Amino acid sequence: MPTDKKWLFTLILTALLSLTLLLSTFSTTPSTPSPANLRRDLNYPPAFAYYISGSSGDSERLFRLLLSVYHPRNRYLLHIGTDGSDEERRKLGSLVNSVSVIRTFRNVDLVGKPDKTTYMGSSSMAAVLRGGSILLKVDKGWDWFVHLTALDYPLVTQDDLSHVFSSVRRDLNFIDHTSDLGWKEGQRVLPIVVDPGLYLGRRGQIFHATEKRKMPDAFKVFTGSPWVTLSRSFLEYCVLGWDNLPRTLLMFSSNIVLSQEVYFHSVICNSPEFSNTTVNNDLRYMVWDNPPKMEPVFLNISDYKQMVQSGAAFARQFAKDEAVLDMIDEKILKREGNRVTPGAWCTGRRSWFTDPCLQWGDVNSLKPGKHAKKFKESMSNLLYDWKTQSNQCIL
Ligand SMILES: *[C@@H]1O[C@H](CO)[C@@H](O)[C@H](O)[C@H]1NC(C)=O
Ligand SMILES: *[C@@H]1O[C@H](CO)[C@@H](O)[C@H](O)[C@H]1NC(C)=O
C-alpha cells in the first residue's frame, strides 16, 4: 500500500471506530432487554397467567388492575363481556399499547370476540374456561392461572407473589371448597336453571324450570368461592378432558345456579389424581354482610388495616376509583398514576416525573417488599393445613 493510501485507510478506520463507539453509547441507554431473556422453569421463580374480566364501562378499571398486577414474566388476558362495546375494547387496547414494557414483552392480550356472561348463569363459567384455554395455548411458560375481575385489587406486588409461591409445589391448587352444601343444596344445586346466554343472541337472565333434580350419586357436589388459583396441570385436565369427569361435570353445571361456585371444586375433589393437590383457600380478602348478600361488601379506607393484616393476596370488592385503592398503590405497590407496579426488574431512576420501569434489567430477579411477610406467613399456615390433611376434600 502506498503511504498516502495507508494514511487515508487509517483515517477512515478511525472515523468508523468512533461512529461505532458513538452508536453503542446511544443504544445502551436506555437498557431494555428483550423477552429472549425470560427464564421460566423450575429453577426460576413461578409465573402467573391472569384472566381479567369486566363488563361495560370497565375499561379504565381493567387497565388500572392490569398495571397493578403487571410483571414481564406473567401473561395476561383481558375480557370485556358482550354487554360492552367494541369501542370500549379498542379504548382498552390503546391504553394497554401505551405501556412500553407491554409493547416489548407482548404478554397482554384482549379477547376480540367476547363471550356472554349472564349473572349467575353458566355462560360465565364457559368464558372462564375459554380464557384458561387461550392462556394455555398462547404461553407455555406460566405456572398458575388466576381469575380476577374489574372489582378486584392486589394486596401484594408481583415480586411478593412470585417470591412466596417459589416455596409452593407447582401442582397445588387454591380452591376454597366444602361438601357441606347447607342451604345451597336446596337453592343452588337442586333447582334446574337455564342460561339463555348459551343460545340466545341478546342479553337475558337465567330462568328456573319447575322440576327439581335429585342430588347426584355418580359424584359428590362441592361448592365454594368462585375465585380460584389453578395449577397449569389441573387447568389442562379440565380443558382437554382426557378423563370424562371434567366434561360430565361441565354438562351437569350448565343447569346450576352460579356454576362458578361448583365446577372446579367438584372436578378437583372427585378426581383421585388431583384431589390431594387442593389447598382449601381462595387467597382473597372479602367482608360479608350479616346475613351475607350475593356479593361481599364494598371495601373502603376503614377496611385498609384489616385487609393488610389478613395476609391475603387479593381483595374484593372495590368501587371504581375508591380512595383505598390509592392507598394500596401508595403504601403497598409503590405505584403511581398510569404506571405499572415497580419490581426488581425496573432499573430506571425513580422520581415523580420519571417512571423507573421505562428501563429494565434482569426480569427474572425478584425483590419482595415488607408486605410479602404477612402473605408468606398465611401461605405457610395454608401449606401446613394441607400437609396435615386437615382441610381437604371430604368425600
Ligand atoms: C396424591 O394421590 C395420588 C394418588 O392417590 C398419589 O399418587 C400422590 O402421591 C399423592 N400426592 C400427594 C402429595 O400426597
Ligand atoms: C366504609 O364502609 C362502611 C360500610 O361498609 C361504612 O360503615 C363506613 O362508614 C365506610 N367508611 C368510610 C371511611 O367511608
Automatic annotation (TrEMBL):
<keyword id="KW-0472">Membrane</keyword>
<keyword id="KW-0325">Glycoprotein</keyword>
<dbReference type="Pfam" id="PF02485">
    <property type="entry name" value="Branch"/>
</dbReference>
<protein>
    <submittedName>
        <fullName>Beta-glucuronosyltransferase GlcAT14A-like</fullName>
    </submittedName>
</protein>
<keyword id="KW-0328">Glycosyltransferase</keyword>
<feature type="signal peptide">
    <location>
        <begin position="1"/>
        <end position="27"/>
    </location>
</feature>
<dbReference type="InterPro" id="IPR003406">
    <property type="entry name" value="Glyco_trans_14"/>
</dbReference>
<dbReference type="GO" id="GO:0016020">
    <property type="term" value="C:membrane"/>
</dbReference>
<dbReference type="InterPro" id="IPR044610">
    <property type="entry name" value="GLCAT14A/B/C"/>
</dbReference>
<keyword id="KW-0732">Signal</keyword>
<keyword id="KW-0808">Transferase</keyword>
<dbReference type="GO" id="GO:0015020">
    <property type="term" value="F:glucuronosyltransferase activity"/>
</dbReference>
